[in-house]
Structure formats: C-alpha cells, structure tokens
Amino acid sequence: MPEHRAYKILLVDDDEDILSTLELAFLPTPYRVTTCNHPLKAYELIENVHFDMVISDIQMPQMNGLTLLRKIKDFNGMIQVIMITAYISINNTLDAFRYGAADIFFKPFDDITEIVQAADAIALKLDRVNNILHKVAEGEV
C-alpha cells in the first residue's frame, strides 16, 4: 500500500454494521477515520472539521446521500466523495457521478478492499494536488 499523509476520512451510513465493517477495513491504513450514522450530523462535522474524503451511503433517513454529496461539493469541492448503496439504479449511479462522486460501490460489497483501494487512488491524486499547491505557494513554478 502506498504511503500517504494521514488523510481524514468520514464514513457515513445509518447502518452501524456497515460503519463497523468499513472502519475495520481502514484500520491497517494510515487514514484517520471518523464514523457517523446520521447524515445531518455528518454535514455538521464536515462544516466544522476538515475531511479529505467522505464515504457515504445513498439511502439514509432525513437526508439522502446524493443530497449530502451536493452539499459537500458546494461547501468544499476538494473533498473527495465515494458513494455506497444497496439501491442500485441507473439514476443513482449517474446522479452520483454528475454531482461529483469520485467512485461508487454497491452493497453487499464483493470485496471491501476495493473501497480502500479507491481511497488510495484518491490519496495519490490529493498528494499530487498538494505538491502542486506547495510548489505554487513557494513560487517554484
């Protein structure tokens, strides 16, 4: 696994079992993971704590994940979002990408390590963006 900064990931799902499974999958990684089982509280966290990535369910009470995705992207377009869902549809999938999702995975997960690998791919992209921003800030470009 590539070595990255300790990027911060927020896991959002109203199903505690899914949150636990995802949290366990990220234990051996360098990522700092926070879990939240309520989308409105998750958005409050996003407004008050810096997260680099969010992994969110689509079907949740009070606010669905697609609405959360749009709010996240409106708040900070640099936050990378991976969507997860058991409700597979063309509309959900297209809307997720249309609203700026980096990736989407369907439940039940075939191989949860694919989600960790997707986070690794995002981390590589963030590493590159951060290096570019650092060079620009230092006047090296």
Please tell me about this protein's structure.
There is one protein chain. The chain is an alpha/beta fold and 141 residues long. The chain has one domain: 3-Layer(aba) Sandwich (Rossmann fold). The protein has five helices and five strands. It has helices at 16-26, 39-48, 65-75, 90-98, 113-137; strands at 8-12, 32-36, 53-57, 80-85, 103-106. The chain has a five-stranded parallel sheet, with helices on both faces. Helix 2 runs parallel beside helix 3. The relative contact order is 0.17. The mean pLDDT is 94.
Percent helix, as a range, is: 40-55%
Structural class: alpha/beta
Low-confidence stretches: none
Tell me the distance between the termini. 30 Å
Give the CATH architecture. Answer: 3-Layer(aba) Sandwich
Task: Name some characteristics of this structure.
141 residues, alpha/beta, Rossmann fold, 5 strands, globular
How do you describe this structure in short?
The chain is α/β, with parallel strands linked by helices.
Task: Describe the SSE topology.
Layout: E1 8-12, H1 16-26, E2 32-36, H2 39-48, E3 53-57, H3 65-75, E4 80-85, H4 90-98, E5 103-106, H5 113-137
Parallel strand pairs: 1-2, 1-3, 3-4, 4-5
Helix pairs in contact: 2-3
